Structures are given as structure tokens and as C-alpha cells.
């Protein structure tokens, strides 16, 4: 659902996909090839939220801020399932792990990886290429070229997903029996551990 608020109407590039069960409200600008999953809430009611090209905000994420603040999720930022971005800016090609919380005025640098279920305190500044985990979140090492290559390939799947959704996602009635032609989908992306073994 796309909602206007106090005269602000979200701007969504036609190549992006916002799931009908997501809520995008007010002063929100969504660039090219972005994906917003079901249950996500992007609330630009108190300030501007910009998703640059290629950003994905996955299922059940929240993006919001205190009044008068504005935030940017830079190009190819990848926000995992259930994460909360509250008044924080995300750098280019970063990965925010599932159920992570990033608080107000935090800055996540380019190509950072923030592990699942981490808590990044308000006003924390994370330099680029940092691997961050924990509660409170701490930098544990630098992100290697191999790790960022793995992350980038995963984000590219999400950048293809909007076109796939526009082409083939349809509301349907469920089948009542498993058809003989139903197959498992092919594996197109490895876990980091499997990726590093190659």
C-alpha cells in the first residue's frame, strides 16, 4: 500500500517493486530496481527517506526516524528480514542482517556487513568494510574481498526480483493437491561458507 501523508506522496521508480502488503507512507523516494517485501513499513511521515538504486528492504522491516530527521539507504544497501532502521544512514552495498536494530544518527559505512540480531547504538559511526556483530554491536574484523563479492551476488538476486515480481507474481487460489510437475527450485546462491569453499 502506498499512502500520501500531509501532501507528501511516495515516489517509486517503475522498475522497483513494492509488495502490496508493504506500507510506504509520505516523503519516501524509491530509486530503480528496489525491492520492498511484504510486511515492510517505510514511514516518511516525519522526515524524508531515500532508497537509492538497487536497495532491498525485506519482509517485516521498519524504516522510520524521529521528527525532522531524514535518512538515506545508499545504492545496493541490503536490509535483511525483520531489521529495524530507525533514523540511521546506510552506506553503499552494505548488508544489514536479519532482525538487526540500527538506532538514530548511526552511520553504517560502505560495504559493511552487520550480523543478524545485532544492536547498533544511536550515533555509532561504523567505518567502511567493517564486519559488525553483537549487542551492543562491535567491529570484529574487516570485510574481505571474497565476503563483499558474496554479498554483492546476493543483492543482485534482489535487484532482479522486482522484474520477476512484475512479470510473474499473481494473487491466486491455493491448489488442493500437489501437482506431479511441481519441482524444487534450483540453487542459485550459496551460503557464505559454501561460497568460500569454491
Automatic annotation (TrEMBL):
One of its GO terms (molecular function) is transferase activity. It comes from Flavivirga spongiicola. The lineage of its organism: Bacteria, Pseudomonadati, Bacteroidota, Flavobacteriia, Flavobacteriales. The keyword Transferase applies. Pfam families: Hexapep. Keywords: Transferase. It comes from the Bacteria. This is Transferase hexapeptide repeat family protein. Coiled coil: none annotated. Gene3D superfamilies: Hexapeptide repeat proteins. The keyword Lipid metabolism does not apply. PANTHER family: DYNACTIN SUBUNIT P25, GAMMA CARBONIC ANHYDRASE-LIKE 1, MITOCHONDRIAL-RELATED.
Amino acid at each position: 500500500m502506498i499512502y500520501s501523508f500531509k501532501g507528501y506522496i511516495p515516489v517509486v521508480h517503475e522498475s522497483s517493486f513494492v509488495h502490496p502488503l508493504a506500507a510506504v507512507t509520505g516523503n519516501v523516494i524509491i530509486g530503480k530496481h528496489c525491492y520492498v517485501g511484504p510486511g515492510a513499513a517505510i514511514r516518511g511521515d516525519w522526515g524524508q527517506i531515500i532508497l537509492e538504486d538497487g536497495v532491498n528492504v525485506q519482509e517485516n522491516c521498519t524504516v522510520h526516524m524521529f521528527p525532522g530527521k531524514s535518512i538515506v539507504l545508499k545504492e545496493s544497501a541490503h536490509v535483511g528480514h525483520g531489521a529495524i532502521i530507525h533514523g540511521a544512514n546506510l552506506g553503499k552495498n552494505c548488508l544489514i542482517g536479519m532482525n538487526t536494530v540500527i538506532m538514530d544518527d548511526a552511520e553504517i559505512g560502505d560495504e559493511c556487513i552487520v550480523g543478524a540480531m545485532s544492536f547498533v547504538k544511536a550515533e555509532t559511526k561504523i567505518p567502511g568494510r567493517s564486519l559488525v556483530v553483537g549487542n551492543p554491536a562491535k567491529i570484529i574484523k574487516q570485510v574481505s574481498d571474497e565476503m563483499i563479492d558474496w554479498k554483492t551476488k546476493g543483492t543482485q538476486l534482489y535487484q532482479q526480483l522486482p522484474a520477476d515480481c512484475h512479470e510473474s507474481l499473481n494473487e491466486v487460489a491455493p491448489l488442493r493437491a500437489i501437482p506431479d510437475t511441481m519441482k524444487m527450485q534450483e540453487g542459485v546462491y550459496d551460503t557464505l561458507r559454501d561460497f568460500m569453499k569454491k
